[in-house]
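CATEGORY: protein folding

GOAL: derive C-alpha cells
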Amino acid sequence: MQFIENRTFDEIRIGDSADLTRKLTVQDIEIFAVMSGDVNPAHVDADFARSDAFHKVIAHGMWGGSLISAVIGTELPGPGTIYLNQTLNFCHPVGLGDTVTVQVTVTGKSAEDSQVTLDCICLNQDGERVIEGQALVRAPTEKVRRPRVMMPEVHLHVRGARFNELIEATKPLPPVPTAVVHPCDDLSLEGALEAARHEMIVPILVGPEARIRAVAAECDRDLSGVEIVDVPHSHAAAEKSVALAREGKVQMLMKGKIHTDELLDPVVDSRTGLRTERRMSHVFALDVPSYPRPLFISDAAINIFPDLKAKGDIVQNAIDLCHALGIDCPNVAILSAVETVTPTIPSTVDAAALCMMANRGQITGGRLDGPLAFDNAVSPSAAEAKGIVSDVAGKADILIVPDLEAGNMIAKQLIYLAGADAAGLVLGARIPIVLTSRADGVMSRLASTAMAQLFVHRRAAGRKI
C-alpha cells in the first residue's frame, strides 16, 4: 500500500524542496475545462487556437497553478497544510505535449502560526520558466501518514462524437441507391430521409404508399422527388427490395418497420435471395464512453449457435467492416468464460481453432487472440493481472462472442448500463443491410448508414475488405 506523509513545521528546514513532473495531454485540458467551466477557445478549440497569439492549443494558466498546489498539499509540507497566500507570474505558455516540472523550495519559516514561505517554479522540457511565484502556508504541527487514496479513472465522452466522425467520412463519397424496407413509422422514415439529406443514400421507399405518405405528413416531411415503390404489406416490401438489389437498382437495404426475420427471409432464399458463399452475420458498432476506441461485437443478432465454419465467416465479416472504416489491422478477441483452452468449454476450443485459421491464412486482415474472457479482452490491467502477454488482450477492436445469447447480453448491457451508442449492419450478403433496433434513434440509423456507405464504396473501389 502506498502512503502519503507530511513534514511538520519542526521537521521543515530552509532549502527543503519537493517536485513533480507532468506532461500536458488533451485529457488534462478537457478535464480542467469541465471542472472549471473555462471553455476559452484558446484551450479547447484547435482551429481558433491556431489563429490566436500562440498559434496552438495551450493549457489553462491555473492548470500549472494546480500542480503547485498538488506538491504543497501532498509533499511539502503535505497533509494538514493550510494555504494562506499564493502569487503567480505566467512567463511562457504551456502547449500540448509539453512536460512541466514543478518545484517548491522553502525560503522562510515563522514560528508565529507555523508559517512557511515557499518559492514556486514551473519549468518546461526546454528549461524555460513557464510559471513562477511564492506561496505562504501554515504548516502542520502534527505528523500525518495516511494510505494514499486511489482516485477513479476519468473517461471523457462526447455523446455521438465517434458516430459523427463516421458521417463526416462519407462526405466526399457519392450517395448509394438504397431500398428502405417498409418505412411505415416515424423513426425509420426520418432515419432514411436524414441519411438522404446528408447525401449518404438515394432512398427508394418500398412499402404501402398511402401509409408512407401518412407517416410523412405526421412528421411534416416532404417526399417530393423521393421514389416510392407501392406494395401492399411488409412481406411484399422485403421481397421487392431484394428483387431491386438483384436487379442492381440498389446497393444497400435499410430496415424499416419490419421484423428482422421477415426482412431476412427473402434475403436468404437460395434461388432468389442475396446469399453468397460467406455466412451472413450482424456486427454491432458501439461507442462506449469508458472505452478508448470503437468496439465491434459479432454476432449478436442472426447466428444463434454458430459452428466453427460460421464463426470463421463472422470474424471475417467484422474484419472487413473495420477495414472499410479505416482500421487496417483490427485486434480480434475471441471470447469465452476463461482464457485457457478447456475441452469441456467448446467456445475455448473454437477460439484456438480460429486463431490457427488466421495463422494459416483462412482468416485474413486482422490480429486474432483467444480464448479471452471479456475483462482480459478490454482491460489492459486485467490482462496484466492474469499474466496474459498479447497484442490483442486489453486492446480489442472486435469481440467475437460464443453465441447470440452471450453477444446480445453484452451489447445490451453496454448500451443500457454503460451508456454506449449503437449502430449495426448485416454483412455477408451481396449488399450490406442496415439493421437497427426499433428503439434506435436517428443518430444510430445515420451511423449504421454511414458504415454501409463506406463499405459499399470500398468494395466498389476494388480494395480488399
Q: What stands out?
A: The domain at 3-147 is CATH 3.10.129.10 (Thiol Ester Dehydrase; Chain A).
